[in-house]
From TrEMBL:
Pathway this chain belongs to: Glycan metabolism; cellulose degradation
Organism: Didymella exigua CBS 183.55
Keywords in alphabetical order: Carbohydrate metabolism, Cellulose degradation, Glycoprotein, Glycosidase, Hydrolase, Polysaccharide degradation
Name recorded for this polypeptide: beta-glucosidase
PROSITE patterns linked to this entry: GLYCOSYL_HYDROL_F3
Amino acid sequence: MSLSSLAAGAVLDRRDPVPPGYVAPPYYPTPHGGWVSEWSESYRKASLLVANMTLAEKTNITSGTGIFMGRCVGNTGSALRVGIPQLCLQDGPLGVRNTDHNTAFPPGITAGATWDKDLMRRRGVAIGEEFRGKGVNIHLGPSVGALGRKPRGGRNWEGFGSDPVLQAFGGALTIEGVQSVGVIATIKHLIANEQEMYRMYSLVKPGISSNLDDRTMHELYLWPFAEGVRSGVGSVMISYNAINGSAAAQNSYLMNGLLKDELGFQGFVMSDWLAQISGVPSALAGLDMSMPGDRNEIPLLGNSYWMYDYSRAVLNGSVPVDRLNDAVTRILAAYFQMGQDQNYPRPNFDTNTQNAEGPLYPGALISPSGVVNEFVDVQGNHAEVAREVARDAITLLKNQNNTLPLLRNASLKVFGTAAEKNPDGINSCADQGCNKGTLGMGWGSGSARYPYMDSPIDGFKSRGSNYQYFNTDSFPSNSSPSPNDTAVVFVTADSGENYITVEGNPGDRTSSNLNLWHNGDKLIQDVAAKYTSVVVVVHTVGPVIMEAWHDLPSVKAVLFAHLPGQEAGTSLMEVLYGDTSPSGHLPYTVPTSESNYPASVNLVGYQIGQPQDTHTEGLYIDYRHFNKESITPRYAFGFGLSYTSFSFSDASISAVTPLTAVPPSRPAKGTTPAYSTAIPPASEAYWPENFNRIWRYLYSWLEKNDADDAAEAANSPTKYPYPAGYSNVQTAGPAAGGAQGGNPALFDTAYDISVTVTNTGARAGKAVAQLYVQFPQGIAVETPTIQLRDFEKTSTLQPGASQTLSLRVTRKDLSVWDTASQNWVVPSVNGDYGIWVGSSSDSLSLRCGTASMTCAGGQASPV
Ligand code: NOJ
């Protein structure tokens, strides 16, 4: 398409063909929210307000007031007459971004590596308390997409690991925690935003199209979103990319169909920042809130697809007022659902500056100034939960000759710049856009400023360790190895968001590949050549290739400390010195080579027109692929050692809800608020008299003549060219829906499994029981060899002590998405499902069978 046709506003035509078979069918209208009982009261309260709001008040709520036009990264308009303030939206998933006196929690990938549900929830509560304390209404996290399909994808570390169920528990428990203190959580990014390059639509190029089939959509990418909706999440952020050729922010199949009808989502959908590329189509497709409000091509000019143009679109009849009413009701219902009408704090910080005073609207050329940062300390005792997450995520991969734990007086030589704080300052790089010093998080909007960094060297110091530190990534000539030394080498791999390039990596690990940064391989090799006992500590965003050094005879121990946030030091010391046994497990597979992966998960490079990213591997990502192709990784998904050992025994299985091939019928939708569908009078959108406008600020009012012209146009015979398949008649909804998350029967427990875990070693420790389902042999549909469905972590078990864990599998866990009937189907009701329990995806010897209803240990692992 030529630039001139774009300039003429042909934005909707920016669809390149996608490969055959990948479709985003039209799905209209947007289902009204309010039909599930858990939200009835909030919808009742919201509808009382909405019924009394003017058109301009309503459109003002659905959009940000412009980029850099307020203290938060997103600031909606207000409706003060009915008591609704501007709402503050702020990043990110690991804590409050761009502020002070906050906690820099370990990111999602680290929480995922703990495999500890209770800790995931407690981390969420602490994060929520900090957002509330700063006056943030809407927390822009958790992230469960990127799912982690591409090992080099830049933002995988913001989420919980490369498996839909691990992501689902991580996301849902975080949401529960955050929302328990009254903050609206935002699950993001819907959906399949699996790489950073080409993610956004621009004037010259459409964003990348993630092309995925219906079954892959349901069984992998949508799964964690379904669980997030089931946990009552208040908001969903739509991704930048297209799905099957249709931009997420105007993809009616995605928002109206999958999210709001099938998953029964009751909250509101916001765009990612500048992901909205149209006005009317995005509203009709189910978008409820435009962020930060500006048009995407050239923000900052004070132009919006919505705000004043939404008012115009309702007056001229192109967007039914019914759609606007639903969007506003959804936003206000989420506000009431979290109790934000009761003493909710106003923002007391400014994401744009660290100064106490500054412009109130930095995006305006001339802005009034005032106090913008009040330096409110929201840290409470959150460092404790942050440290616990960092510690319990540490994943011990290799430990020959019991090299670890270290003896209290061990003589240590410590190497690598990553062991100590960034010498330029722990927050010297905006949004952590550099890899210098201890790596506590990746970069981008998912970062936060460190209040402090407890570095590994701080940890050695405060423990009074016997160590000598060489703050270099090249092997120093003066380290004087002695036979009693243990060398500890710190290495890293980093990634982040696309708007910052670090050491040649534009978000994704484009140039570093899966290698260690800063010649880490060489440093380890050099150290290993001179020292006989080497411990390698890896701070990483995801899998790294370790083949150059892993099997060297002196490399005795390897630990992934993931991304520890501010609590890198003490957490690591507690594990290195054995106060605590390591209990983390890998939230992804570690390969031996990048060629282990299917070619389709490589980063997509430049393509003429819309970059096409076709998920030809379907369900087979991460361990599902390795198992299918019988590729032995370096370390399997779920792997992690301890200083002690555990046995799994006395397993039993009991049937709870009998399976049927198709789930019982869904409940019907409940009633939703009813409003007048008449187009409101033009006067509801007129500018107020004598209003002092701020240049570039986005307002929802129209000049009187514009409003009158729009109202006049409503009578014109020329109608808006609605998308194919458009309808404004509410429907009963799909069979697979029925409640938040889908048909409630999908979440019926089919089987309870109980297993006794015993500490059979000599030290205290915690074990993780991972439950994988193997579908029955001989069914008509192909399924991955095994799939994670549940997990539990023990409390600390003393040597000899036991704990019985309860796990469960649901109807959905035993179903496949049947594309023909558009429902979850149990492929073999009486078939023999293998329910495998063990400590890792490749170490499963305990099998419960649903045919015999017995469990037995000592079985040959399916992998
Ligand atoms: C873009 C990112 O993709 C999203 O995750 C973030 O919340 C927004 N920017 C706001 O910073």
